[in-house]
Amino acid sequence: MRIVFMGTPAFAVPTLQQLLNTEFSVVGVVCQPDRPSGRGKKVQVGPVKALALSQGIPLVQPEKMKDPSFMETLRAWDPDTIVVAAFGRILPKIILNLPPKGCLNVHGSLLPKYRGAAPIPWALIHGETETGITIMLMDEGMDTGAILQQEVIPIGPDETAGKLATRMAPIGGALLISTLRGWDAGTMRSYPQNESEATFAPILKKEDGLIHWDRPARTIANRIRGLSPWPGVYTFLKRERWGIWKVEVVDPVTGIGRTISDNLQVPGIITAVTKQAICVQTGQGHLNLLEIQPENKKRMNVSDYLAGHRVEDGMTFSMTKDDDCAI
Fold first, then answer.
1. Number of domains into which the chain is organized
2. Strand positions, DSSP E, the chain
């Protein structure tokens, strides 16, 4: 089977690597164009591109999917199927119809749940305890194609989106290989998704990381896990932006220390400070802040920050730099 692989970020690398170790022939790789990234905004070579170059596989990076020269290259590669993993582009009908065995997608959720660009983060944000990989036969919709195979994957209680994606990626590659063999032999059957169960996972924005302290502690903790490593969550203290990277949910009374007042319920207020943590009131329960990133500083444990900075009971985290920070 001749395969064209389409993918760009690290999540797609194990799938391509496993394809290269099979009887299948990867005749070409398609990645998104290199983009500036990082603080220096330097153009970076993507992980899939780096692997393709190291293996001497023909590579193209079209700006537009219907570009005539790209389509000419794709036809010349003459793929039996196209495999897509975290490519980041919608494939037009002209490409979907090109390979005789169709286009297969490695998707990081149990479709029809979490269709869209960010299925892994949104599963964590919503507090899911399990997710999975779906191998899908692509159509013109947004992750609406028929399902070929699925594998359920449990989510660890403290797992972040970054760690979960790293664990899921090789599982997706192995499931794809199994699916391809059955698909090539004609023994694999597809079945339609249940539209009534569909949920969506839209692309993440930096604004999604702003902490709303009036929400329950568990809800905030799940968002912190889901938005790590990108875009990260943030709040403000003393008109300074703080990134929050690691927390734990604690009992509202028996957490790391006393509450300021049994009658005082102010979301965002600091209710206790110890050498290891800062305890914050939420809309329901408390959070211990364990790992933070004050403005213009590196990520650090709260204990390291408190060794050189004063944080007191009664200070209040806010949603903007303009809000006061104490009561």
1. 2
2. 2-7, 25-30, 36-37, 42-43, 59-60, 81-85, 103-107, 130-137, 146-154, 233-237, 240-250, 270-273, 278-281, 286-294, 300-301
Regarding whether 117 and 12 lie in a shared domain, the answer is yes
pTM here? 0.93
Statement to judge: residues 6 and 154 lie in one domain = yes
In a domain, 311, yes or no: no
Which of 191-199's residues contact partners 24+ apart within 8 Å by CB, and which partners? 191/146, 191/147, 192/146, 192/147, 193/111, 193/112, 193/144, 193/145, 193/146, 193/147, 194/112, 195/112, 197/112, 197/113, 198/112, 198/113, 198/115, 199/112, 199/113, 199/114, 199/115
Per-residue pLDDT of 56-75, as tens digits, reads: 999 999 999 999 999 999 99
**Contact criterion met (CB below 8 Å) for 271 and 259:** yes
| Burial group, residue 254, by CB count within 10 angstroms (0-12, 13-18, 19+) | exposed
Q: 177 and 211 share a domain?
A: no
Give the C-alpha separation, 68 to 196, whole Å: 38
Hunting for tokens 């220390």 — which residue is that? 257
